[in-house]
User: Fold this.
Amino acid sequence: MGIISNLTALYLICIKSRKNVCEYRKLLLLFLISDLFYAILQGALEPSIIVSGDMFMIFASGFFQNNVMLSVYCGCVSMSFVIISFHFVFRALAMSNKSYVVSHLDWKKLSLICLIFLAVSGIWGGLTYTQFSYLPSYERLARNYFDSINLTFPKDPARELIIFQAHFERRLFISHTLSPRLDGSIAMNILLTILFVEVLVGTFVFAVIVSCIYIMRCLSSVGRNSEAWKNHHRHLFVALLVQFLIPLILLYIPCTVFILVPVFGISSSFTTPTWLLSGVYSIYPILDPLAIILLINDYRRALKEMGKTLITKVNSLQHLKLPSSRSR
Assistant:
């Protein structure tokens, strides 16, 4: 469904965009292409993201079952938020006094934007691959989790799992037996990685907030621009806000919660369902393109016209079949 939703939005943007959204269309295309790649990865990997005690783990049950592809998948999660922040900055620039000079997206600017997208995605994916890699000390907790859901523990966990344990574990003599217990100290490399990622996301959130303030001031200003100009930018701004809220609610807030819960160590018996975050993540590539289609007037009208044309053709085919069936 995510692939179909993105392909439909791509078709409408390529064919049905007016000249006054020509520059904005370029960013929309980048956004939808990244969404499409994310949807394809989601289907190919079928990832499961869980928290069990102070352990965070991602494993795949689809066509690809290796941590390299899972790291690329995590990088794609980060890219959507970066692209959305650029959308807000672009909308603010498009409403400025020097809108054409600043917001005209030639190939040099587009290439630079793409490089930034790929750099942030690469940083996120690289940190996931290097810092959340399997260690022998994780085996006990990981194996116990796989046993609890009746799945076979991976033959090569170092190549198949994205995993971290937020607290160090040491062996203590308890009741004259050698038993593992958490010693309470946080793994600093894990904590610093999480903090760095949160700060990185925070910078783009800050850009969104600043852009929103400027856009709202422009829309509320009296006598500066015509009502038609304001209505056009107001519709695009509302569509952007929805596009921002969808990944915020479906991707980043759940991801942040899942990453931070192991650090706080709520309970050693606390375990999330295997389907929970994976199910939420699978909804995202379906809803995001629909927000673009339904909230931007040009694309909504074009979709209605396509629907009417399809219904007309289906009805005409049914009428053609009726005489032939009666003659028999």
User: Anything to note?
Assistant: The chain has one domain: 2-314.
